[in-house]
Amino acid sequence: MNGVEKLFKKETAMVMFLFSLAVLSLAFSSFTVFNVHAQQEYIYYGYVPAKMWRYNLTDQNDPNSGYYSVPTSVSSASLVAVLAIRDNTHVAVYSLDNGSLVSEATIDSMEKHYTVFRNGSFFKVVTDQLACVYLLNYGSIPLSNATSGPLPDTFYQDVNGAYVGKEFYVLGLGTDYYIGYAVLALEKSTVTVTREDGKEQRFSLDANTWKELLLYPFKAFKIESTGYIMVQSGRPVDRWGNARTFYVPSVYGGFVGTAFYSWANSDWDWTESYGFRVSSVEDASIAVWSLETKEKIITANVPGGVGLGFKPQAPAIFVQSDKPVTLAYFHNGSILSSVGNEGIYGAYGSGVGYFGVKPGEETPFFLSIDSYVEAYIFASEDTEITVDGDVYSINTDSHYVITTPGSHVISSNKNVIVETLNWPNTPDFQGLIYNGVLIPAVQTVDVTVNVSLTPLGGFPILYIIMGAAVVVVGVLVGLIIVRGHQKSNVNKNIFSD
Q: Over the range 456-481, which residues count as b (16 or more CB within 10 Å of their CB) and which as e?
């Protein structure tokens, strides 16, 4: 054997040894979040709805009785709130309408920075460390003694930018008397909630259970857990409420997956067109479990390319699919209900929601049929997207907008963020009401998670899926196929099929 051959064998052995160490390190690592990139900056995009108001029927049992404006619904501005996770976080807030720097600050952990934008404004937030950024229906800088604020309908990201984790930072919102937050436990956990003044609350949760919380408005909270949890705010409404849009993230990362947890409710209006909607681009079987009873409450086959609406009778749910799907909660726009607030034509549903699209992953979604809709696709670098088969280019700090109701599918060669708006198209001059939403940074879209879920009923005993392997290919076709922008007071309820 000559010297070259000896050297080759020696180097080969060393490579194999290092590879084995890497595999063992991965296998026994206590970290579950992976594909987390070191970033020089994090970028968050948003659009403030232009039409912030609501009209109600004079007589909600008579659709021809005329409309009046609800004075308390009118708003001319929204609040962009930034909550720091780490000390010495630099925040810069820009107007995308003219490119100007609107405000900047350096804040420490659990400190806040606020900026107000007028209706119809596009904005960008840049931080040098990951932070929590909110868009809130609140038209001014909050006072230090504020006791109420709009409760976001949203899920929260952990300190790594994942929706499943062990450490979260949350800005309390809602009121000082309303329970508006939920901690959903994926495994047995001891959870500690610490307010910015040091006051603590501690509780224990078994796997597949949840705890509801009241977090004081405009105070910062740190939520730490010994096990893996998700954090959500904005309980889906019962028969008397007004549904607000949100997208349910996959347990394994992103918004396309096979396992989802969410707050829900047990008291639905079965006539009103709102609820959860699952979409699949290939034939799939889904099961919905009640986290209260640990029973399977819904099973369904979802044909490829078809969406399925459902209203689970449970306060919190787990949704499992044998193929990748997406899951959202929204109102379809029809004003018809069985009870309403004051009559059978008193339904109103709207909202602002966010989801991300990973590079190379076709992401289907649905925009309400009986509504005005806008979906803004934001890019932080020059990006090529495909929307419903057509290719478009988005320049850095720019966007592409979709305004057609129904089914769509997006793919991209870079991370992109999508902000959706929906509000009823009856009457023609109706406006949009929303509460608030967490804005994910573009750089966190492809953060993925490896999670071992605890058995629940018919679940596999050990259910481990790499989020990075979840890829959906195909085109979503809704249960209702529409041509153009159709309007009607009474429409098929896509959540009761």
A: beebeeebebebbebebeeebbbbbe
What is the rounded CA–CA span in Å between residue 21 and residue 305?
A: 43
Task: Give per-residue pLDDT as tens, 9-44.
Answer: 444 444 344 444 343 333 333 334 445 555 689 999
Name the residue among 170, 114, 112, 111 with its Cα closest to residue 141.
Answer: 114
Confidence of residue 1 (pLDDT cuts 50, 70, 90): very low
* Long-range pairs, 198-205, Cβ under 8 A, ≥24: 205/229
Please give the structure tokens belonging to residue 396: 């850095």
Using CA of residue 314, residue 318, residue 321, residue 325, what is the dihedral sign?
Answer: positive
Q: What was the pLDDT predicted at 17? A: 43
* Residue 3 parent element (H or E): helix 3-28
d(CA 75, CA 49): 10
Residue found under tokens 């107007």: 95
Amino acid at 406: G
Is residue 279 within 8 Å of residue 365, measured between CB atoms?
yes
| Radius of gyration of the chain from its Cα atoms, rounded to whole angstroms | 23
* Distance between CA atoms of residues 260 and 95, nearest Å: 35
pLDDT at 8 over 60: no
Q: Which residues does residue 401 pair with via DSSP β-bridges, in sequence order?
A: 376
Which helix H or strand E contains 408, and what residues bound it?
strand 406-412
User: What values do phi and psi take at 135, rounded to 5?
Assistant: -110, 120
How crowded is residue 210: how many other Cβ atoms within 10 Å of its Cβ?
Answer: 20
The band of 343, judged by pLDDT with boundaries at 50, 70 and 90, is: confident
Task: State how far the alpha carbon of 336 is from the alpha carbons of 100, 230, 330, in Å.
Answer: 44, 34, 15
Residue 339 reports pLDDT greater than 80: no
What does the chain come to in residues?
497
Closest CA to 418 of 484, 491, 347, 356: 356
Whole-angstrom Cα distance, residue 56 to residue 68? 6
Give the contacts of 332 (CB within 8 A, at least 6 positions apart).
Answer: 273, 274, 349, 368, 369, 370, 371, 491, 493, 494, 495
Three-class secondary structure of residue 467 per DSSP: helix
Residue range 350-368, pLDDT digits in tens: 999 999 999 999 898 999 9
Return all residues near 191 (Cβ < 8 A) that are at least 6 apart. Answer: 183, 185, 202, 203, 204, 205, 211, 223, 224, 225, 226, 229
Domains of the chain, by residue range, sit at 41-469
The structure's pTM equals: 0.86
* Residue 432 tokens, joined: 């949009």
Peptide bond into 427 cis (omega under 30): yes
Of 260, 85, 237, nearest to 157 by C-alpha is 85
Residue 179 and residue 116 in contact, taking contact as beta carbons nearer than 8 Å: no
Token reading at 236: 């889906």
The predicted pLDDT at position 13 comes to 46
SS3 19: helix
